[in-house]
């Protein structure tokens, strides 16, 4: 029974991805400068499907020492029916973060996304999204930092298309 429902879900997803939509052009790439993620690349892999790898780093220092936090992540975005220059989408995001200092905590996060992109013209656009995220922080050195949290998640960005 579980196998049949999984197959139906896969066929439905493939059907949605294969259907045509006119708002996004296949193969277009955009530099996605957003908050909270500093740098991402939005790649329209198909008419309705886009992927967005993300990278972020933050240098943290105090009087005694300093460390750098790195975050790598990615999103898979499925465009819904566009309305003029506005394209709503749903998606999934996963990210992993770590510090360069040994025995520092690591963070895994996963989020369900709902958002929209608005094309200001051929080369520029903006996007905003919201969702619910699950994050897991783990530290062998300091178990007090270990936590699992469900929380709201959101992001806004400027898009520069090439």
Question: What's this model, at a glance?
Answer:
With about 160 residues, this protein is mainly beta.
Strands ordered across the widest β-sheet: 1-2-3-4-5-6-7-8
The SSE string, one letter per element, is HEEEEEEEE
Number of strands: 8
Dominant shape: elongated
Q: How big a fraction of the residues is strand?
A: over 45%
Radius of gyration: 18 Å
Percent helix, as a range, is 10-25%
- Describe the sheet with the most strands: 8 strands, antiparallel, barrel
How many helices? The count is 1
Mean of residue pLDDT? 84
Rounded to the nearest angstrom, the distance between the terminal CA atoms is 46 Å
> Which residue ranges are poorly predicted, with pLDDT under 50 across at least 5 consecutive positions?
10-24
User: By helix and strand content, what is the structural category?
Assistant: mainly beta
Report on this model:
With 162 residues, this protein is mainly beta. Helix content is 10%, strand content 60%. The protein contains 1 helix and 8 strands; from the N terminus they run H-E-E-E-E-E-E-E-E. The protein has one helix at 2-18, and strands spanning 29-35, 39-44, 49-61, 66-79, 86-99, 106-119, 124-138, 147-161. An 8-stranded antiparallel barrel has the order 1-2-3-4-5-6-7-8. Strand 5 (86-99) and strand 6 form a beta hairpin. The radius of gyration is 18 Å and the shape is elongated. The termini are far apart.
């Amino acid at each position: 029974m579980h196998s049949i429902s999984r197959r139906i879900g896969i066929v439905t997803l493939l059907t949605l991805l294969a259907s045509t939509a006119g708002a996004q052009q296949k193969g277009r790439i955009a530099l996605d400068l957003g908050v909270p993620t500093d740098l991402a690349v939005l790649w329209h892999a198909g008419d309705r499907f886009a992927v967005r790898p993300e990278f972020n780093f933050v240098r943290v220092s105090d009087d005694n020492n300093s460390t750098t936090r790195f975050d790598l992540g990615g999103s898979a975005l499925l465009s819904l029916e566009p309305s003029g220059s506005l394209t709503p989408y749903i998606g999934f995001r996963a990210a992993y973060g770590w510090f360069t200092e040994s025995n520092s905590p690591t963070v895994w996060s996963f989020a369900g996304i709902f958002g929209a992109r608005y094309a200001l013209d051929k080369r520029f656009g903006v996007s905003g999204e919201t969702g619910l995220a699950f994050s897991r922080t783990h530290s062998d050195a300091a178990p007090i930092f270990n936590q699992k949290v469900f929380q709201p998640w959101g992001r806004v960005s400027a898009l520069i298309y090439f």
